[in-house]
Design brief:
This protein is mainly alpha-helical and 543 residues long. The protein is built from 25 helices and no strands.
Length: 543
């Protein structure tokens, strides 16, 4: 801290011929006030604070020296120093408080105002300045108390009477905001708090309440960002730590949330709430991790069970639960249980409508389920994704949109995959197996006991099954079918969409006979693996 000896005069003329002359310079409180005041007027507030501090310390030292003897500690025969001027020193404290206010040092300003009033109980401006600093910090009740004290000294101060009314309104607004938050109305509480924060921009308490409001509104990342500005100057604040832990928890970051809680518990070891939350968060993390390990080991049913257990711990944590639902969707898709996969992905999106991975997983399973309705829904999901994903991924999704639209067009004609009862990602072996089963069921030789109407319907299905197999067992035709070429044009390599005449000419009974003659081996040489179909495997990433 600066001392009188540190003071550097404004010009060389004031310095004298030696350091001894500088040390012997004694300034009155009014002179210190004048020097600091010049710096204040020049907006050098920190410089003003330094000079006010020098003046205060010099005056206090003078008082101590005077207490040691009638002449203030000087040798006999010298001129006695002036008596300690409490009112003048109070003014130095008051003006230093004003300088602190200008650099937002409200806590220091409050301390200086208290010291000023101790020296001069009638110093109304110091009392009112303290009230103003308290208000800036959001300590409205304390500010109101200071205003009442100041008005006892200066009862006719119209500005401060108006300020008292304004501060009373702030007290009521904070009460209304906290009530609204307790009633589950965080948006209303946040709106009221904004009005208060205009009056008290440095209030940590009001900002902490606003963090709670943002969390209640589901704005967890914004709440966490605001809490980060508060923690910088308050590492040892268990209440703030637990608030940040809840933000992290609701953002799905359980590991960091647990670390925050452990630090809060270290600071406040008697608080059982922290231990309970740590236990809860660890249970959620462990069951989620058990599901992850099971999935990696290809124990898909086990993964689904473990993630299901994690979902029962806290149904209110939508961010965490949406990831679990999406993980379950991936497991169901790998089991070819696409209806269940769609349901799980939809639950994930209900909890988090911005979850792009869930949209993609749902679209993939909808595509594999086939049918006009499912394919159109898949196309809508992919198109919605285009507004949400980064540029580098858009080309991939655009390709899936084109392929899905082609599948919609096919589905509106004849769905060969549906006729055989296979998914669009079925391989050649699955297609052959499905054809054999369906053809045997609807073969004319097995319809002898049926009515004429039933025989006619079975014959139509038998022909459609044969047509589906002829296309899906031929890689070239299947590829053209998957790309959206009209059914009548599958044999025409030069035809585009919507052109051509032909059609299938092979007799369905002959096709079945040839199939069985080859041991169920299909229509001829060289085809292995057949149509891959489908949208391809989407890589899995744990949420």
């Amino acid at each position: 801290m600066a001392t009188e000896g540190d003071y550097v005069p404004d010009s060389d003329d004031e310095m004298g011929d030696s350091s001894e002359d500088e040390i012997n310079v004694v300034l009155t409180p009014q002179e210190w006030k004048s020097k600091a005041g010049d710096l204040y007027k020049a907006k050098d507030y920190r410089g003003a604070i330094a000079v006010y501090t020098q003046g205060i310390e010099a005056c206090l030292q003078q008082r101590e020296e005077q207490g040691g003897g009638a002449n203030g500690g000087n040798g006999g025969g010298e001129k006695p120093e002036e008596a300690f001027d409490a009112v003048a020193v109070a003014a130095l404290y008051g003006n230093r408080a004003a300088s602190y206010v200008m650099i937002l040092g409200y806590e220091q300003a409050i301390l200086d105002c208290d010291r000023a009033v101790e020296l001069n109980p009638k110093f109304a401006n110091a009392i009112f300045r303290k009230a103003m600093a308290l208000k800036k910090l959001g300590r409205f009740k304390e500010s109101l108390s200071a205003l009442q004290q100041g008005l006892l000294v200066d009862p006719n101060n119209a500005d401060q009477i108006k300020e008292k009314t304004n501060t009373e309104m702030c007290v009521r607004k904070v009460h209304r905001a906290t009530d609204s938050l307790a009633q589950g109305k965080p948006a209303r509480a946040a709106s009221i708090l904004e009005e208060c924060l205009v009056k008290a921009p440095q209030s940590r308490e009001l900002k902490l309440i606003k963090v709670e409001c943002l969390m209640g509104m589901g704005k967890h990342e914004e709440a966490y960002a605001m809490s980060s500005t508060l923690i910088r100057n308050s590492q040892n604040n268990s209440k703030l730590l637990i608030t940040r832990a809840r933000c992290l928890y609701l953002m799905g970051n359980l590991d960091s949330a647990i670390k925050h809680l452990q630090e809060a518990a270290r600071q406040d070891p008697d608080n059982s709430e922290y231990r309970g939350l740590i236990k809860k968060y660890k249970l959620m993390e462990s069951t989620k991790e058990a599901g992850n390990k099971a999935f990696k080991a290809n124990d898909l049913e086990g993964a689904i069970r473990s993630w299901g257990e994690a979902l029962t711990v806290d149904k209110t944590n939508k961010s965490f639960n949406s990831k679990l639902y999406c993980n379950r969707a991936a497991a169901y898709a790998k089991l070819s249980k696409h209806q269940e996969a769609v349901a799980e992905a939809s639950r994930a999106l209900s909890d988090d409508p911005t979850y792009t991975k869930a949209y993609e997983r749902r679209a993939t399973s909808l595509y594999d389920m086939g049918g006009v309705e499912n394919l159109e829904a898949a196309c809508r999901d992919y198109e919605k994704l285009m507004d949400m994903i980064p540029d580098e991924k858009q080309r991939e999704i655009q390709g899936k949109i084109r392929k899905t639209k082609a599948a919609v067009k096919q589905a509106k004609r004849k769905d060969y995959y549906k006729l055989l009862g296979v998914s669009r990602s079925a391989d050649d072996a699955e297609i052959k197996k499905a054809y054999r089963k369906a053809a045997l069921k609807y073969h004319p030789d097995r319809q002898s006991s049926k009515t004429d109407e039933e025989k006619e319907q079975a014959g139509k299905v038998f022909r459609d099954i044969a047509e589906a197999y002829e296309v899906l067992s031929d890689p070239t035709k299947k590829g053209r079918y998957d790309s959206g070429v009209d059914l009548e044009d599958l044999d025409n390599p030069h035809a585009g969409h919507g052109q051509g005449h032909g059609g299938m000419e092979i007799d369905p009974s002959m096709l079945f006979h040839m199939f069985m003659q080859q041991g169920g081996g299909g229509m001829g040489g060289g085809r292995r693996g057949g149509g891959g179909g489908g949208m391809g495997g989407m890589p899995f990433h744990f949420g």
